[in-house]
Specification:
The complex is a heterodimer of chains A (307) and B (306). In chain A, 77% of the residues lie in helices and 0% in strands. Chain A is an all-alpha fold and 307 residues long. Chain B has helices spanning 6-12, 23-33, 35-57, 73-76, 96-132, 134-148, 152-162, 167-193, 197-204, 209-245, 257-266, 273-301. Classes of the chains: A mainly alpha (307), B mainly alpha (306).
Chain lengths: 307, 306
């Protein structure tokens, strides 16, 4: 098991480095620098600014310094647009918000999705099954930027139950709509995957044996069927995590929740390179670490993988 | 009245050459027997007609600003046949019909181009990787794995910011993402194709590997590739709309369904539901149609996959 984890880490670290190098190559290759404006600055001022941000050093040194500062001090450098802010500071402001509703959305998607999928599978070909499958298809063509306005239209403007935006320190009323908007698509996908893999498992020999022994249905499902049926769901969680973290950008922009997505889009509109790069790299690292966890869980549940 | 004998008819009829039913004829039959897929295909054709010919019906240019309607579009910009604003106007007094036509066209175009890049690059990459196998395969697939594990939307936005937001850049960026999963699918299929007798025969007669891939492997991949290309189109449309929703995609006066939905969503509190409704309708119907057509194609071309 330990060697398996080490092997996976050995892949994860270069992936992160490749991501950083790609971002840097894009920055170097881009026409014009971050400080080019309508009115060209005097050469001396430009040189000063560049040395302040370390842009006058050779590319390799720049990349090395950047990586070293992140690893050693968790320092993503200063913002190129706002002199009094650092990228780390912006991330520290936005990340807790993203983490809060992201965590709930993920939890809702997995728990409700699995429960719905299992129910649909054991009530195969009943109205419950059709309802679950039908809504899963419906939800897969409703990306969150379509769902979010519809939710606000219904729950804020028509019913007036929940606020249509803002964060307010994470009070629960403000968290509900972002969580629903973010979770629904993945909830549907997880339900669909769980249903089909559960159907397959329920038809296998060891479940027949368990039934023949006269075990109660609840025990068969919880003790015998659920674990093998979870494998395809687990392998979907990696892509789902990426999609959700991407989706959080829409949530932040639409609901003005103040998560990192909002800073990301603002700096994208301002051409604030260092913030975009910082967020991209942070998100990339999180994704890769999450995939690592999923891989390890997978190997733990299914020992065949480790070979 | 002469007695009509059908057998005599058949005997006298000139002998028609027996038409064999090719795989594709079979697939077409199966596709059109699927009612949902057929309806979806009709819907797609209608949407395409709307996107490419709707401009002739529109009474206004997409960027014509009616200054007298600015600010009062909730009362005066209502959808109506009489004013010629079939879908109403937006808050700048522009005709929503013309803009929806153009947005639908752009979204369709992005979907088709992205999916075509995936077909060309992904298929070749996957076929080469699968055919050569061994170390080449593991390196090429590791590259795909690594690229897939990067949250690409962020990198794409990074690219759009650094190289400037243009339609070309959007096409390039979406093309860069699209081929990855296609490469995986093509590789998996190639692995089973390369052990077939006809490939063996080609090797035995001394055909060069690249010719084998292009002549013998790729044509046999086509069925699966077409299915996944159809399923990729809505995915690409969602990508583009996502970026445009954030205001980072297409630039004015161009628009796309994502940009229109974003504008409409920003106005939902102002009593102009048509501004969200019409673009949303076309977006959702288009995605549904593509999913059902893709699903129907999968059942028709690749029945063993079910």
């Amino acid at each position: 098991m330990l060697s398996f984890i080490l092997r996976r880490l050995l892949v994860a670290v270069p992936t992160i480095l490749i991501l950083i190098v790609i971002s840097f190559i894009l920055m170097f290759a881009a026409p014009g620098g971050p400080f080019n404006s309508e009115k060209p600055l005097p050469a001396a001022v430009m040189a000063n600014i560049e040395s302040r941000y370390g842009l006058d050093q050779p590319y390799v040194v720049q990349i090395f310094n950047y990586v070293w500062n992140i690893v050693a001090h968790f320092d993503f450098g200063p913002s190129f647009k706002y002199r009094d802010q650092t990228v780390t500071g912006l991330i520290a402001q936005g990340f807790p918000v993203t983490l809060t509703y992201g965590f709930w959305a993920f939890l809702v998607a997995v728990v409700v999705g699995v429960a719905l999928g299992v129910l649909a599978a054991i009530r195969h070909n009943t109205w419950l099954d059709y309802l679950a499958t039908g809504s899963a298809i419906g939800a897969s063509v409703l990306p969150n930027f379509v769902l979010a306005p519809i939710l606000v239209l219904v729950f804020t403007l028509w019913l007036g139950w929940l606020p249509g935006g803002g964060w307010n320190g994470g009070q629960w009323q403000y968290v509900v709509l972002p969580v629903i908007a973010l979770a629904t698509t993945y909830l549907a996908a997880i339900a669909r995957i769980t249903r089909s893999s559960m159907l397959e498992v329920m038809n296998s020999n060891f479940i027949r044996t368990a039934r023949a022994k006269g075990l109660p249905m609840s025990r068969i499902i919880l003790r015998h069927a659920l674990k093998p049926a979870m494998l395809p769901v687990l392998s979907y969680l990696g892509p789902a995590f990426v999609a959700m973290i991407t989706g959080s950008v829409v949530i932040d922009v639409f609901f003005s929740t103040g998560g990192i997505g909002q800073y990301f889009v603002n700096s994208a509109l301002n051409r604030d390179y260092s913030v975009i790069m910082g967020v991209t790299i942070l998100v990339g690292v999180l994704t890769i670490l999450f995939n690592l966890v999923v891989d390890i869980l997978y190997a733990w549940i299914d020992p065949k993988i480790r070979l | 009245m002469a007695f009509h004998d059908p057998t005599a008819d058949a005997l006298q009829a000139p002998a028609r050459p027996d038409k064999g039913r090719s795989l594709w004829t079979d697939a077409r039959r199966r596709f059109f027997r699927n009612r949902a897929a057929t309806v979806a295909l009709v819907a797609l054709v209608l949407i395409a007609v709307f996107a490419f010919l709707g401009g002739f019906i529109a009474q206004y240019e997409r960027d014509y600003v009616d200054f007298s309607l600015i600010g009062i579009n909730a009362t005066k910009g209502v959808p109506s046949i009489a004013t010629g604003h079939y879908f109403g106007t937006d808050q700048e007094g522009r005709d929503l019909f013309a803009r929806t036509v153009q947005g639908t066209r752009l979204s369709l175009l992005i979907g088709v181009v992205g999916s075509m890049v995936a077909v060309i690059v992904g298929t070749l990459y996957g076929a080469i990787s699968g055919y050569f196998g061994g170390r080449v395969d593991s390196v090429m697939m590791r590259v795909v794995d690594i690229l897939l594990s990067i949250p690409f939307m962020f990198v794409l936005i990074l690219m759009l910011v650094m190289f400037g937001r243009s339609l070309l850049m959007l096409f390039i960026g979406i093309g860069l993402i699209s081929w990855l999963s296609m490469a995986r699918i093509a590789r998996g299929q190639t692995l089973s194709i390369k052990n077939k007798e006809f490939v063996e025969a080609a090797i035995a007669t001394g055909v060069r590997p690249l010719t084998i891939i292009l002549r013998h492997v790729v044509p046999n991949l086509l069925g699966v590739v077409i299915v996944y290309a159809t399923l990729l189109i809505p995915e690409m449309i969602i990508y583009e709309s996502f970026i445009s929703f954030l205001g980072l995609g297409v630039q004015e006066p161009n628009t796309s369904l994502g940009a229109l939905i974003s504008r409409g969503a920003g106005q939902i509190g102002n009593g102009v539901p048509w501004q969200l409704g019409f673009p949303l309708f076309f977006f959702v119907v288009m995605l549904f149609a593509f999913f059902f057509v893709g699903d129907g194609l999968r059942d028709a071309i690749d029945p063993k996959d079910r």
